[in-house]
Amino acid sequence: MKKGNTLFFKTRPRIRSYAAICGSKEREGVIGEYADITLSDDMYGESTYEKAECKMLSNAISLAVEKGALTDGDIDVMLSGDLLNQIISASFAARDFQFPFLGLYSACSTMSESMLLAAALIGGGFARNCVAATGSHFASAERQYRYPLELGCTRPPQSQWTVTGAGACVISADVGDIAILNATLGRVRDWGVSDVNNMGAAMAPAAADTLIRHFKDTGEQPSDFDMIVTGDLGALGSRILKDLMWEKGYDISPNHVDCGEMIYKVIEDEFQGGSGAGCSAVVMNSYIFTKMSAGLYKRVLFAATGALLSTVSSGQGESIPCISHAVELLSLSNGNGAAP
Asked: What angle do CA 15, 18, 21 make, to 5 degrees?
């Protein structure tokens, strides 16, 4: 069923299994003890950063499928993308598997988009098991979007640090203790921000637009959720989002968290925090899903955000159009306890 821009899944597709891999910097933060693999070498034994990114994504997918007690033959489709030109990490990772592949580009909102589309395929009866996945690497993204790493350019205070990591989950028709209730499709929003270092300010309006439409379509309020998770606005973008929501009559301050704010141990060292497609993918497929599986978080609204820029558009003086897709999750676990 569809109301407004929100899809309601009567069959309640479920998160069957999940896996995450993170880099050496990321493992020092809150997700370090929850990720399946933490790297001591961000090259991951490869000769280039791009190959390391692809390897992380491929291994995260393999782990998620294995943890779901499935084989390649059980997966109907893999939905994935990344930040690199022509989504080469996802496309090349797909070579390692025998299941069909649908390549996506939604920048840092690829995790929520892939989950949304997987749930729609399952809810419509077109699939029983789907893989939703994405990742990023600091070194590969920085030299593609900004400056060659060898220049050692000074980072401005509004900048964020692209996360090195990958996350994947298997979404199934009827197995798993986390259900996907509904999902709100994002609209492209552009408020004229052109600073490629200021992702939080560029993406906050898109997050606000999607969250407001989600609340209107569902009749829910922010207080209905244990957590409203965005990714990855960082510290500055999160403050802007809260102000935008407050202006429209929604107070998300008590239960809003941002993946970019929480992923690093000391956010001040990274200015505004983390970013990149791997940021929300790692946080959701390690810390958040683990807590939900244990019943510590019951209802979570996940709204990843993406900046749809390229080096060409930035070089031509274009502003940064952004998007956010929201997915509502419900823990089916009977576990007891209080979230830390």
From this structure: 155
Query: What is the number of alpha carbons within 13 Å of residue 269 lying toward its C-beta?
Result: 9
**pTM value > 0.70:** yes
Instruction: Tell me the percentage of the chain whose pLDDT exceeds 90.
Output: 84
Contact predicate 156/200, CB 8 Å: no
Distance CA 94, CA 67 (A): 19
Please check the confidence at residue 152 and state whether its pLDDT lies above 80. no
Exposed / middle / buried, residue 6 (Cβ in 10 Å: 0-12, 13-18, 19+): buried
Q: How far apart are CA 28 and CA 154, in angstroms?
A: 23
User: Looking at this protein, which amino acid is placed at residue 107?
Assistant: A
Cβ–Cβ under 8 Å, residues 39 and 21:
yes
Per residue, the 3-state secondary structure of 237-287, as one string, reads HHHHHHHHHHHCCCCCCCCEEEHHHHCCCCHHHHCCCEECHHHHHHHHHHH
> Is-contact 122 11, C-beta < 8 A?
yes
Instruction: Give the count of beta carbons closer than 10 Å to the beta carbon of residue 181.
Output: 18
- Say what the alpha-carbon torsion angle 86, 204, 299, 78 is, to the nearest 10 degrees: 0
The HSE-up count of residue 335 (CA atoms within 13 Å, CB side) is 17
The alpha helices in the chain, defined as continuous H runs, are 49-67, 88-93, 110-123, 138-145, 199-218, 234-247, 259-262, 277-283, 289-293, 311-315
Q: Give the closest residue to 184 by CA, choosing from 204, 208, 205.
A: 208
Q: What is the DSSP letter of 225?
A: -
Q: Which domains does the chain have, with CATH numbers?
A: 2-172 (3.40.47.40), 180-331 (3.40.47.40)
Instruction: Write the pLDDT tens digit of every residue in 190-215.
Output: 999 999 889 899 999 999 999 999 99
Cα dihedral 119→123→125→130 (10° resolution): 20
